[in-house]
Amino acid sequence: MLKIENVTKYYGDFKAVDNLSFVVEPGEIFGLLGVNGAGKTTTFRMIMGLLEPTEGTITLDGKPIDYSVTDHIGFLTEERSLLTKLTVLEQCEFYGTLKGMSNEKIHERLNYLLEKFGVLEYKNKKIKELSKGNQQKIQFITAILNEPKLLILDEPFSGLDPFNVELFKNEIVEMSKRGSMIIFSSHRMEHVELFCKKIVVIMRGSSVLEGYLTDIKDKYRKKNILIKGNLDVDAISKIKGVISIEALADEYLVKIEHNNVSNEVFKAIKNTNITKFVVEEPSLNEIFVSKVGESYEK
C-alpha cells in the first residue's frame, strides 16, 4: 500500500503541495489529475524519494521511501528521459542495473517485453534512430523492466497510435491484476476513464475532488441527453433545468441540471418524430473542467 499522509511541500515561500493525502491499494489503478502547475510533478518526485516533504509522510508497504524501496518503483515521465546515443539494450541494462537487477534477469525480461511490444528487432538500434512511438515503447519498457510494485505513469500514451494505446492499456491492466499499484496521470480524461476507479484532482497543490469515479459522477448533478430527430429547440430550451442545447452532426446534445429534468424533456418530445433519446452520465472531462473552473474562481 502507498500512503500519502498530510503531505506539504514548500519551495522557499511557495507552497507547491498543500496537505495532500491519498492511499493506493495493491492492484489499484489510481488517477492523479490536475492542470499544469497543480503540484503533480512535485508529488511524483516525493513518492520517488527525489524530494523530501516539508511536512507529512509517504510510505510504501509501511516503509519510508528510500533507496531500498525505490528499487520496487517504476516511473514513466512525461518528458523523454532516454539516453538517445545508447542502444535499446544498453539503455535497459543501465536502468535494470540501477534497479538492482542481475544481468541475466535484465536480458530475460527485456527480450520478453521487446517481443511483446513488437520491437525486438530494435534491440541493438540506437534510441535516436527510433520513431517517437517506438521511443515511447522503450521508455515504458524501462519503467516496467523491474516488475515494480508501484508504477507511476505520467502521460504514458504520448505519441502513440490507437493500436499501441490499447497495447499499453492491456499491459497496465495485467500489472494491476498481478497486484501492482499504479498511479496514472494524463490530461486526456478519456484515457483516465479507461481504467481508473479512484481519482484525486489537485489544484494549487491541494485536493479539490477525490473518490471513486462512479460516486463522483453520481454526485455531479449535470447530465447530458442525446436526442436524434425533429427537435423544437426553442420549446426545449424554455424547460426549467435545461442548461443548453448544442446541434451536433446528426443529433442534439441537451445539457440538464439533474436527472429529473430528463423526464420533462421527454414529455415535451414524446409525441414528435424522435428516433433517439439517451440520458448520459457526464464525462470526467466535463467534471474536471467544471471543478477546476470553480477552484479558479475562489
Compact summary:
With about 300 residues, this protein is an alpha/beta fold.
Head-to-tail CA distance between termini: 34 Å
**What is the residue-mean pLDDT, rounded to a whole number?**
91
- So how many helices? 11
Question: Strand pairing plus helix content: what structural class?
Answer: alpha/beta
Using the alpha-carbon principal axes, give the shape.
globular
| Physical arrangement of strands within the biggest beta sheet | 6-7-8-3-9-10
Largest sheet: 6 strands, mixed
Low-pLDDT windows of residues: none
What is the share of helical residues? 25-40%
Number of strands: 14
Strand content: 25-35%
The whole-angstrom Rg is 23 Å
Order of helices and strands: EEEHEEHEHHHEHEHEEHEHEEHEH
The multimeric state of the shown protein is single chain
